Amino acid sequence: MQQAGYSFALAGTLEGQRVSGAVETLLEQGVDGIVLSEPIDDGTPLGLGADVPVVSLGEGPKPGEGIGAVVGLDGVAAARTATEHLLTLGHRTVWHIPGPQNWWAAPDRLRGWREALAAAGVPEPPLPLEGDWSPASGYASGRQLARLADVTAVFAANDDMALGALRAFAEAGLSVPGDVSVVDYDDIPAAAYLSPPLTTVRQDFAALATRAVETLIVLIEHRSVPAEHTHLDVELTARGSTGPARHRTTPASVKG
After folding, report:
1. At what angle do helices 105-120 and 75-88 cross, to 10 degrees?
2. In 20-35, which positions are buried (b, 16+ CB within 10 angstroms) versus exposed (e)?
3. Which uninterrupted H or E stretch holds 181?
4. What are the CA-CA distances from residue 106 to residues 48, 61, 139, 177, 230 (Å)?
5. How many CB atoms lie within 10 A of CB 133?
6. CA angle 177-183-186, nearest 5°?
7. By three-state DSSP, how is residue 46 classified?
8. Which of 3, 59, 99, 253 could form a disulfide with 106 if both were Cys (CB 3.0 to 4.6 A apart)?
9. Dihedral sign for Cα atoms in the order 198, 156, 201, 106
10. Residue 229 and residue 41 in contact, taking contact as beta carbons nearer than 8 Å
11. Do the beta carbons of residue 96 and residue 154 sit within 8 Å?
12. C-alpha–C-alpha distance, residues 129 and 122, integer Å
């Protein structure tokens, strides 16, 4: 961005501030354009009052209502890919640890998981606790799943929740991938160095950010609208956390 002659300002939505409030804060600073990073659905139009181009970085929102373009992975297709990977390994079904459904990314991943199961004609198991993207929420869901003898494959909606689930499974005496295969989403740097390393749908965050900024500059300088939704390629990185199904007959021992 600086190479193109622009500087940037940052406005967060922590401590309860609405997305629309962050947009208004930036507009008060006289910005030429706005990139929204992984927006949350707080019930207000994202571009409310914005007379500048707005690009959404991530999944979910559709162009229109103040959004000039969306740049990100196809979250539905990516979740299908993750789920299908486990089904091809012989797992009878796949359980899902979902993210918070007020984030646009989470419903897309939930939908892709459901579509993959439906296309394969396999049963959709009930969801455990809704996660909040944190390792703690993944751990809580993992403890629930470890109690069920028929759980052999899990798709977690992000790396951090998968990390928490791995600990829960280890504490219950379950091996990954011997007893339970785990695939997740994002591919943070630590994912390749866990034990076992995580199989994951990779998000190239640098490429996403670069494409979003390039799109925003086009909108600022030319006011032309690029493709409605720019999808980067879905890439599944297979590592040691997934393997052929070995069906358990008894639940694991979970204390507490």
Report:
1. 40
2. bebbebbbeeebebbb
3. strand 181-186
4. 23, 12, 18, 25, 18
5. 19
6. 140
7. coil
8. 99
9. negative
10. no
11. yes
12. 21
Q: Identify which of 222, 218, 246 has the alpha carbon closest to the alpha carbon of residue 4.
A: 218
- Rounded-to-integer distance, Cα 125 and Cα 238, Å: 24
**88, amino acid identity:** T
Rounded-to-integer distance, Cα 228 and Cα 211, Å: 13
DSSP 127: P
Instruction: Provide φ and ψ at 194, rounded to 5°.
Output: -75, 170
Return the structure tokens found at 79: 């979740």
Q: What distance in Å separates the CA atoms of residue 221 and residue 144, rounded to the nearest whole number?
A: 52
pLDDT band of residue 246 (cuts 50, 70, 90) is confident
Sheet holding 229-232, edge to edge: 34-37, 54-57, 69-73, 229-232
The pair of three-digit structure tokens given for residue 138, joined into one six-digit string: 């993944």
pTM comes to 0.83
The three-state secondary structure class of 22 is helix
pLDDT digits (tens, 9 = 90+) for 86-118: 999 999 999 999 999 888 789 999 999 999 999
For residue 53, the Cα-to-chain-centroid distance in whole angstroms is 25
| Residues whose CB falls within 8 Å of the CB of residue 70, separated by 6 or more in sequence, listed in order | 55, 56, 58, 59, 60, 61, 62, 63, 228, 229, 230
Q: What is the pLDDT of residue 61?
A: 54
Specify the length of the chain in residues.
256
Query: Residue 128's closest CA among 111, 140, 116?
Result: 140
Q: What is the crossing angle of helices 135-146 and 159-171, to 10°? A: 40
